[in-house]
Amino acid sequence: MEMKKVVKTLVLILMLSPISAACSPVGKETTGSSAPPEAKTPETMAAVSTKEPDDPVFNELGVLPLFKQPVTLTVGIPSTVSDDLDNNYYTRLLEEKSNADLEFQLIGGTGADFRQKLSLMIASNSELPDIILGGLEMRQSNQYGSMGVFLSLNNYYENSSFYIRHYMDLGDRETLLPYATAPNGNIYGIFKDTREMADDFMYRAWINKTWLNALGLEMPVTTEDFYNVLTAFKTQDPNGNGQADELPLVGSTAWNRQPFEFLMNAFTYTSAGGANNVPYLQIKDGRLAASYVLPEWKAGLEYQNRLVTDGLISGLTYTQGDAELKQILENEDVQLVGVIPTNSMSVYLADSVRKEDFVPLPPLTGPEGANFVTRVTFLPMNSFFITKYCDNPEAAFRLGDLMWEEELSITSRFGEEGVHWQYYSGDKKSLYDYMGIPARLEILQNIWGQEEAKKVHWGDFQPAKRTYEMGVMAQVFDGNIYDSQYMTAVSVPCYADKTPEDAVLYISFTDEEWNTISDIANSIRTYVDESKTRFIVGDLGFSEWDNYVNELNKMGLEDYLTICRQAYDRMESLK
């Protein structure tokens, strides 16, 4: 086996940009954002060190490096993480801070390939590295834990963590650990928590303010207002070229370019379809329910069908990919688009003049007063696992705990300090200054998504902890109001605080539960997704609604909901 060593007001924004005119300020959300604990060196701790002074392996918790003598740990990791893990900057920084000697074993490539290769190794009883680093579904990692392949880390979380423990004591224990805990109460891995508020509310839409102004129209507030605005965009030549070439609303089949969630939330709360293992569930009258059989869901589909039938949503939205969409968006001759559903204006070229016409479209209010926003919080998913083959699991755990240290957490996203980013303490504002987030990071060279990143970090998939003050939200605002990240930042107030407190984000199932409902869940999900599009584009008439509901019942909807409710209630009891 080859081993490779491996809440302020929005005054500034309202002054600077028309983008935010339709949005209201949002309060600063608490995320355990107190200053991260500062690590000490053995020398600075000598006078106060009282714990484990004679331990031959470990320095006291919070003292760097972690180990008094080099400790060798083997790490199984996807090959796509880095071109050269030995010489990767993050690797060298982690080894320096820990005094660990990391030896890497490459396991598969892409996420699916990695999971398949790991599964085959476990099934064949192959000896695994000390640590497995890679994204696994919670159900899969829980299964390996119950088999004894992955160790339970509960005791280490309580007694051997320093960085994680700091945030646990600030509130993460209640808000995050339930999602990282298996149904049997064990925690089989270390997770990443690097939330950005814009990611939480990513089902956004943008409207052409230039066209609104040209036609003397107000920002639409209700679904009927929106219908009338789109009709005006279609019939009143807002781009002024004398041709009926305007597309009132257009999207694509690519991730987050569909208007479905944005529009359906004006009728009933719509949990994320693509980011939840149990999509489109909600709490209705105090009980877990399926949104897709409710009368409100039907009303939302009828509204969207009306928009398509009247030519207000382009049919291309349901057939074209992003490449075709971008050609429309960047049309050189004239602006063609009135509304685009997208989480980010990065769908446009960085220097595009076309995006300068757009401002965030606040969530619409439906005929019965619904006015929701889908929340897609990226929940903590374990990505660092210690195997039964590890001779020193405490050393392995302390290495994972160290990954939550501030410099390592920032490096794992932005690169090398002093080369790709630096701390900032001047008078400039941050992208999210209106939330009270100070400008703390200045980006010197943006390498995210670039090939160079593979030489510098591991793609930010491993454990890390970035509060709002340690990530994109704390970046210095360079004054460009049409920068896509800035446009995203000022859109957030339109969407925050419009999600039900009891929104269903995720449900953790036991193996027995999932084995019982997996086939039902997959069948229901496929049928619901296919049917909602068919209803919207007119391939399925609403006279078939009762047959649609009956088909879901035949698939076992009630049995599915019964187990979902059982698992959901168990998770809620952990909070």
Terminal-residue CA separation: 43 Å
**Overall mean pLDDT score?**
89
Note the main sheet.
5 strands, mixed
| Rg of Cα set | 25 Å
Low-confidence stretches: 1-18, 27-33, 42-51
**Could you say which overall geometry the principal axes of the C-alpha atoms support?**
globular
How many β-strand stretches? 13
Instruction: Give, in spatial order, the strands making up the sheet with the most strands.
Output: 2-1-3-11-4
Tell me the helix content: 25-40%
Structural class designation: alpha/beta
Q: With helices defined by DSSP (H or I, 4 residues minimum), what is the helix count?
A: 21
Give the DSSP E fraction (strand runs of 2 or more residues): 5-15%
Structure characterization notes:
There is one protein chain. The protein is α/β, with parallel strands linked by helices and 575 residues long. The chain is 36% helix and 9% strand. The protein contains 21 helices and 13 strands. It has helices spanning 11-16, 42-45, 89-98, 111-123, 138-146, 154-159, 163-175, 177-180, 197-200, 209-215, 223-235, 260-264, 295-309, 322-329, 393-402, 406-414, 453-456, 484-495, 511-537, 545-555, 557-573, and strands spanning 71-77, 100-106, 131-133, 190-191, 205-208, 247-249, 281-284, 287-290, 337-341, 358-360, 382-386, 421-423, 441-443. The strands form 4 sheets. Strands 2-1-3-11-4 form a 5-stranded mixed sheet, with helices on one face. Strand 1, helix 3 (89-98) and strand 2 form a beta-alpha-beta unit. Helix 13 (295-309) packs parallel to helix 19 and helix 19 packs across helix 21. The radius of gyration is 25 Å and the shape is globular. It starts with 10 loop residues before the first helix and ends with a helix. Mean pLDDT is 89; it is low at 1-18, 27-33 and 42-51.
